[in-house]
Design goal:
Layout lengths: L2 H16 L3 H13 L1 H24 L1 H7 L1 H24 L12 H16 L2 H10 L11 H34 L3 H4 L2 H18 L3
Helix pairs in contact: 1-8, 2-3, 2-6, 2-8, 2-10, 3-6, 3-7, 3-8, 4-7, 5-10
Pfam families: LysE
Subcellular location: Cell membrane
GO molecular function: amino acid transmembrane transporter activity
């Protein structure tokens, strides 16, 4: 693959990753509430979900989802419902201070699963790869599916790096907030509000 083409793809991937979206907002919410490790474990779950979406785009399953309005809507609304359920849990625990920086392995497994499920239940991710990857594939190069897979992995790596940086930054903000009792008690409300925002955006957003 051409180096200039690869660098162009990487630049586009970075810009698209840092734009506000469900994945980075979800990571931001978890990091503020639970610290940088909470965000990083959430990131691992999200990136595992990206692997599935990349494979679906390469194989062509994404196209089938896009062509089926019912399948697309089913996955989209399931994802929105899951996020609103997480928001409900956060609002329900509004008087409990969150701090997972010294969490157990089960805490981190839970965060990993949340990131994975949230990403898998967002059909727009598969459609994103289906629309983006072919734009940087050359017909004169190697196998088209192999090129798409390589580009997908490049996207995955840069997404992991950026989400990890978001986790570190948001974790510091969360630590600062926890120093003030009046704000610390509202951490779950902040998280619940972000989950609600993401869920509604996913439910009512266009394809």
């Amino acid at each position: 693959m051409d180096l200039v083409l690869m660098l162009s793809f990487l630049g586009a991937a970075v810009v698209l990753t840092i734009m506000p979206g469900p994945d980075n907002l979800f990571t931001l919410a978890q990091s503020i509430a639970g610290g940088k490790l909470a965000g990083i474990w959430t990131t691992l779950g999200l990136c595992t979900g990206l692997l599935v979406h990349i494979a679906a785009a390469v194989i062509g399953l994404s196209a089938l989802i896009y062509q089926s309005a019912f399948a697309f809507s089913l996955v989209k609304y399931a994802g929105a419902a899951y996020l609103l359920y997480l928001a409900y849990q956060s609002f329900k625990a509004k008087d409990t201070a969150l701090n997972l920086e010294s969490g157990t392995a089960s805490d981190y497994r839970s965060l990993y699963k949340k990131g994975l499920i949230m990403n898998l239940l967002n059909p727009k991710v598969s459609l994103f790869f289906l629309a983006l990857l072919p734009q940087f594939v050359t017909n004169t190069g190697s196998n088209v599916q192999l090129q798409m897979l390589i580009l997908g992995l490049v996207f995955l790596i840069q997404a992991f790096v950026i989400f990890s940086l978001i986790s570190l930054f948001a974790g510091k903000i969360g630590r600062l907030i926890r120093k003030y009792p009046s704000l610390s008690g509202r951490m779950n409300l902040i998280q619940g509000g972000l989950f609600t925002l993401i869920g509604l955006r996913l439910a009512f957003g266009e394809r």
